[in-house]
């Protein structure tokens, strides 16, 4: 019996251990890094065109059945586009090539990024004369720190490592006797397009956190977008019919309470859980107040939402009502 | 006795599962400890005193990280400070940034396995794999944490072992003295193999 209980404890521990951490742990590059609540860098018009210059492999079809590297750019872009965000990635295969390498000036929005709006994805031996070192791919984001508006973001993929396209676990080539990784280009482009959209690495956030995400700094056995990636995308580019979502850095920890259903409050009332009832009533009143304040400022930006939330958080132990009134007036 | 056994099994499984979240291959080439020591042209410990931006000879903006209070384990530095040259920077109201690269903060005490400074995008072996921060533990001693937040907790042959990014994991981080010992012993092995 004791052993069974211990086994259950172990299994519970394993379950908890595999818990990926906070649900909304995504991170982005803030327009002003010194201000963690400043806007994420983003495409202001909600659209970005990337030009895929990867071509086709010489060895025939890839392991996932595609015939060209460029098809994998399309697959990766489609996966981001399918999430319902208010941004759309358009992929052009080939087209006019502008060399992204060069000094800022005519034809280069930033150093080594090419003309504004030009976002090539290309194989390269180096990054504009700089050795890749141990890097196998990178995105050079060019943006305006004052507004967070992205200008362009070329993606460089090292031609010095082995590539293919496949789903599932990372594969290794053992033909030489020394296992050598064969990288899946589709998931790597999926990751890089996340950078193009403004997302950063959640596993490098401060304070440290563990989360399952294609946007983690390492390519892993994950080969599709995860909940956290999508949450990040939708927060930066909220669907047109929906207001901005909370971001983890805003510390608006009352969010779970806001998702409680009214029937839960009723249940709590029935069973006479006085303390639970008190907290639920408080949460629901915050929810209603937030909804009103937010609805009236729907045409505003995240700032309106943050302001409302944070002010409510500040007075959570006191009288939220009076603060909400002033918010409504402000919005 | 049985309780202790199951507790150990539980903890082992827990560690494995938590570790699995952060394991696997890399966006960068994977480097083990042997690679870090052998491929580095310079291994140093220092304090980040300044992070500034400046143009290179071709007029391309880059970020310069100045390190002071240096201890050199491999290679030579003739100046009292060492400057690490990383791509990216701001110019005329625009900023270019490679999002995959780790960052530096003034005041951080770091241990770096440097290679290709001034020539590579990020001149550290394995990018984040060769970049460690020295941070205080609860017992007052200094522990070693990789720049992506993984506490370094052990070494098995060529492979470094890391704990999850939790406060408990950080308390298990090896001391900086122990890490220095590992570097020295690996360098001695390198010397011996070169002498042969």
Describe the structure.
The complex is a heterodimer of chains A (331) and B (196). By secondary structure, chain A is of the alpha/beta class. In chain A, 34% of the residues lie in helices and 13% in strands. The longest helix of chain A is centred in the last third of the chain and has 23 residues. Chain A starts with a helix and ends with a helix. The C terminus of chain A is likely disordered. Chain B is an alpha+beta fold and 196 residues long. Chain B has one domain. Helix content of chain B is 27%, strand content 35%. Chain B is built from four helices and ten strands, in the order ααββββββββββαα. A six-stranded antiparallel sheet of chain B has the order 3-2-1-6-7-8. Chain B has a two-stranded antiparallel ribbon with strand order 4-5. A two-stranded antiparallel sheet of chain B has the order 9-10. About 8% of the residues of chain B have low confidence. The chains are: A alpha/beta (331), B alpha+beta (196). Strand 4 of chain A pairs antiparallel with strand 5 of chain B.
Structural class of chain B: alpha+beta
Q: Unreliable runs of chain B, pLDDT <50, ≥5 residues?
A: 12-26
Tertiary shape of chain B: globular
Residue share in helices of chain A?
Answer: 25-40%
With strands numbered from the N-terminus, the spatial order across the biggest sheet of chain B is 3-2-1-6-7-8
Main sheet summary of chain A: 6 strands, mixed
What structural category arises from helix and sheet content of chain A? alpha/beta
Task: Please give the alpha-carbon distance between the first and last residues of chain B.
Answer: 51 Å
Name the helicity range of chain B: 25-40%
Reported CATH architecture of the largest domain in chain A: 3-Layer(aba) Sandwich
Total count of strands of chain B: 10
Q: Would you kindly provide a brief summary of this structure?
A:
The complex is a heterodimer of chains A (about 325) and B (about 200). With about 325 residues, chain A is α/β, with parallel strands linked by helices.
């Amino acid at each position: 019996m004791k052993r069974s209980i211990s086994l259950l404890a172990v299994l519970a521990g394993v379950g908890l251990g595999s818990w990926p951490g906070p649900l909304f742990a995504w991170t982005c590059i803030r327009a002003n890094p010194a201000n963690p609540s400043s806007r994420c860098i983003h495409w202001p018009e909600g659209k970005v065109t990337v030009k895929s210059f990867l071509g086709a492999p010489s060895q025939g079809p890839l392991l996932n059945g595609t015939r060209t590297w460029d098809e994998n750019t399309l697959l990766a872009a489609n996966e981001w586009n399918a999430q319902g965000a208010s941004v759309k990635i358009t992929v052009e295969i080939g087209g006019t090539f502008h060399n992204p390498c060069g000094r800022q000036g005519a034809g280069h929005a930033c150093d080594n990024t090419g003309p504004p709006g030009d976002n090539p994805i290309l194989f390269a031996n180096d990054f504009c004369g700089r050795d890749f070192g141990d890097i196998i791919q990178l995105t050079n984001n060019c943006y305006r720190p004052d507004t967070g508006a992205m200008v362009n973001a070329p993606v460089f993929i090292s031609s010095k490592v082995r590539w293919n396209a496949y789903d599932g676990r990372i594969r290794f080539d053992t033909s030489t006797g020394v296992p050598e990784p064969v990288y899946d280009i589709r998931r790597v482009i999926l990751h890089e397009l996340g950078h193009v959209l403004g997302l950063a690495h959640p596993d490098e956030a401060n304070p440290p956190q563990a989360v399952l995400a294609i946007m983690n700094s390492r390519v892993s056995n994950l080969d599709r977008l995860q909940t956290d990636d999508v949450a990040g995308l939708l927060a930066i580019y909220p669907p047109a019919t929906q207001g901005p979502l909370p971001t983890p850095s805003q510390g608006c920890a009352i969010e779970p309470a806001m998702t409680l259903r009214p029937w839960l409050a009723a249940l709590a009332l029935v069973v006479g859980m006085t303390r639970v009832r008190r907290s639920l009533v408080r949460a629901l009143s915050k929810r209603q107040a937030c909804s009103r304040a937010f609805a009236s400022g729907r045409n505003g930006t995240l700032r309106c939402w943050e302001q409302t939330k944070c002010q409510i958080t500040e007075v959570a132990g006191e009288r939220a009502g009076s603060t909400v009134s002033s918010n409504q007036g402000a919005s | 006795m049985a309780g202790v056994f199951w507790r150990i099994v539980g903890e082992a499984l827990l560690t494995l599962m938590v570790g699995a979240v952060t394991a696997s291959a890399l966006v960068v080439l994977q480097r083990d400890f042997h690679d870090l020591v052998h491929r580095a042209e310079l291994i140093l410990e220092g304090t980040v005193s300044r992070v500034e931006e400046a143009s290179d000879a071709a007029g391309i903006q880059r970020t310069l990280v100045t390190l002071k209070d240096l201890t050199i384990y491999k290679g030579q530095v003739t100046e009292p400070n060492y400057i690490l040259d990383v791509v990216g920077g701001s110019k005329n109201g625009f900023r270019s940034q490679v999002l995959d690269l780790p960052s530096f903060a003034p005041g951080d005490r770091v241990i770096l396995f440097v290679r290709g400074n001034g020539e590579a995008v990020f001149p550290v072996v394995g990018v984040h794999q060769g970049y460690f921060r020295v941070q205080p533990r609860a017992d007052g001693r200094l522990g070693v944490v990789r720049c992506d937040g993984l506490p370094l907790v052990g070494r098995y042959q060529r492979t470094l072992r890391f704990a999850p990014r939790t406060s408990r994991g950080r308390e298990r981080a090896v001391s900086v003295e122990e890490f220095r010992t590992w570097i020295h012993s690996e360098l001695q092995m390198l010397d011996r193999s070169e002498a042969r």
